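User: Okay, second chain of the day. Same drill as before: sequence in, structure tokens out.
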Amino acid sequence: MCIAIPGKIVSIVNENTATVDMGGVRRDVNMDLLGGASESVMGKHVLVHVGYAIAEISEEESEETMRLLKQIAGLEEIDTLESESP
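Assistant: Same drill. Structure tokens below.
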């Protein structure tokens, strides 16, 4: 099973690399699979797998995916169905 981590592009390193913030952890990520790194990708959200940005996603999808990953890892409280019912 492969897991891609969502993150936000926060800076451009060079034409092939951008720095991506993934839940507070910043890593330089290869952007070649998405056409390279340029100012036009600043602030966009991507999925990162083994050091490569593999897909662009919406901010909402990025936040929800990160929330679920934290929940799976036990870093966020899991809401019970009882707390959601009226």
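The first strand starts at residue 5 and ends at 14.

User: Thanks, on to the next one.
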